[in-house]
Amino acid sequence: MKMKNLEKFEKYVKGELQEGELWEFKTSLETNAELANEFKLYLEVEQSIKNNQKNRVFDTLEMIHQQNKTNKSQKTIQLRSSRFIAAAASIIILLAAGIGLIWMQSHQSTSALFNQYFEPETAAFNVRSSSSSIEQPVLQGMQYYELHDYDAALEMFDKAPNNLMGKLYGGLSLMELGDFDKASVKFLAIIQHNDNLFIDQAQWYLGLCYLRTSKQKQAVEMFTSIADQNGVFKTKAQKILRELDQE
What we know:
The structure is a single chain. With 247 residues, this protein is an all-alpha fold. The chain has helices spanning 6-13, 19-31, 33-70, 74-117, 123-129, 136-146, 150-157, 164-176, 180-193, 199-212, 216-227, 234-243. 78% of the residues lie in helices and 0% in strands. The longest helix has 44 residues, at 74-117. The protein starts with 5 loop residues before the first helix and ends with a helix.
């Protein structure tokens, strides 16, 4: 594959781009149509390679099975049986390795999607847009969040455990720290509250948490629910479902 950005694509899919490189790459995908098309082609080729590897394994198994059936001489059968066992053992090893490769590529693919769509909103936006009074610990927590001090932010949000804005930014802080399961709990609490300003955001980020932890069924269900609504994340949810071949 002759692609001038091949090395960068591979690093992105494997999660090896540094923070500055990652931001630059994601921005380029949004603004550079040629780069976006090249990246789409790269993903399609990788998927094709993965499918071909799997098909070759099963074709080899079928060929061995058919060869064994046509051997009617007991001596030949015995000889071929030993070869079949050895070949089958090798194929099983290859198949296991192939399944592992497929899982890794699938995991890398969902991770790449997560990196593409995870763009947390700034705390300043919600401070200005919220009509509810902001408790002092939550305000301080969001200031820490803006400074990327997520541990300190979580300490402040925990001082106002019933504040929904604190739960939202607590969840975002946990996502930044890589604890997606705990983040999911925060977002679920917001959704279950049902009467608040942050349900759209909680649903979106919960879907991304499911995506990042390879819980694809739950992710698809959440993004489908978002796509069926008329919220701010409707279009993004439709796009991500297309990426997952679920729309």
